[in-house]
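User: Predict structure, ligand magnesium ion.
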Amino acid sequence: METDCKSNTYAVLDSARLPIAVMEGEDKILRYVNSAFSTLMCKSVEEIIGIPFAQLMPDDEICLLLLDEVYRSGKCETHAQQLNAQSHPLYWSYEIWPTYGDSRDGTKPVGLVLQVIETGSLHRQTALMNEALLLSAVRHHELMEEAETLNGKLEAEIRERQRAESEIEQLAYYDVLTDLPNRRLLLDRVHHAVLTCRRTMRHGAILFLDLDRFKTVNDTRGHQLGDLLLQQVAQRLKHSVRAGDTVARLGGDEFVIMLEDLNEDAAEANEQAEKIGAKVLASLEHPYLLEEHRHYCTGSIGITLFGKSQESVDGLLKQADLAQYRAKAAGGQTIRFFDPQMQAKAIARATLDVDLRFAIQKEQFMLHYQPQVDSNRYLRGVKALLRWKHPQRGLLLPSDFILYAEEHGLIESIGLWIVDTACRQLMAWSRKPETSHLTIAINISSREFGHPEFVTRVLSILDETGVNPNRLILEFTERVMFGSLEETLVKMSALKACGLSFALDDFGMGFSSLTCLKSLPISQVKIDRSFVCDILTNHSDAVIASAILGLAQNLGLSVVAEGVETEEQYAFLATHGCRIFQGFFFGAPQPMEHLLLDCRKIGSPFS
Ligand code: C2E
Ligand code: MG
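Assistant: Predicted complex:
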């Protein structure tokens, strides 16, 4: 058991890395050494066992003395040499402690154990290992650093390449002075836009712009200021169009604007392009500040549309350029179209616009009045119809200008003039007993009605003129409902409360006429001329006309038949319950003096 225990202990010591020696008795006879100890002594275990320690290391006096000391005192000793552990081969540090036998009486040790805790070679191994670890750590660090530097370099290289690429792209596709797309990019974009337009059936437009008298800027103020002007022009052009549109510089003072997604209808698209062109020209008119110089500059624009046509991209640019030359030839600061027809229309529109704006001031408008008679052919009132005594074009009908006036915000002032004129006529009539009962019906366009101040303006005219509101009938088409129904109702109710009444014009022509009748305070409907004209020959027209009459009767509305041209039409309508008639059979629209001449017979039947 004891041997087992001992041999177990020795087995553990055998595998220990530190050298250990066990000795016995006063003579310190070596009884056990582990393999680390035998390696340290450069002797085999067999050579060592059984000899006294002093024989193994006769010259190590310190160690021999310490062994004696421990054996004598029973106290452990540690020895660490002051030599440089790394460089001295014989360097060793050790601990010695006593062993006591089993029957230990606590007085005297029976032997000693010496355990080496450090030697020169062990120290070197550790040092080497530490060094290796340190080196690998350093290396790791270095590697990390290297990787970082490498990454940094790579990133910089990529950035540089990207920068170079975008610089190349910028140079290839953009104008250096203004940063706008250059001719190359423009051609590409026009090409795509042309294809898109063919697919979507919508239109696009090329606006070719050239600055007026740009050369004089360069000549008088120098090229540097010329460049500054071009840069400022580029900015203004960019701000006058939508983000999706292209503004390009071809070189010199030539710019091109490409518009996309314009109306499907060529005339509409043309008008859109013209409007944008006008906006662009207006944006150029403001003064430029070139360093400390104030400078004025205008431009000329040539426009061509593209859409379904198979015109090439180059062809389109040439067309717009040609139109631009014509704009220059016309004195500059203007727009010209490539298409002569479009050109004529654009000029007509522009002229119409200017003329219309002055027509009211110059008293060029007048009202013609068409009689409205009852079933006994007595005059009940008149329908007022607008005419324009154009100084050059003669007497113009509403179809020549009313739509334009509606679309360009001019109808409001014209409409007020009509209300005012009709009221003055009513006032004149009111003074004579034979005419004081007559009514006047006037057309009110839905645009005009939609104006927020329509009601107040009409009421203030009524107030000013002192007219009896019962004598004024406002005629609308169902388009009046296209705005908010609630708002329409509020406005109509306000006017009705003051005594005005409403007639629904063109009844049966649209889809929502019945909704109008149901929702709005209307007291009269007008059967449109298109039903009346074929009432005797076309069965459906006859059915529709009599249905309207029946419906109106049931709803307590009066009906006016429009466009009555013959005795037979009148007779048919009268037999089906119509009570008021308007049409050439009773009289065409005419100036008041003619009507009155005709109406010497007021009080006697018409026609
Ligand atoms: P509307 O209000 O339905 O006017 C009736 C139109 O039919 C008038 O044409 C009139 O001259 C024409 N007419 C009347 N009786 C006959 C007939 O027996 N046979 C034929 N063939 N035609 C007849 P006009 O004066 O050219 O006006 C056309 C339209 O222009 C008007 O239709 C109305 O929508 C608009 N308009 C006329 N005056 C004004 C106005 O003062 N303001 C507004 N907003 N629109 C107006
Ligand atoms: Mg009508």
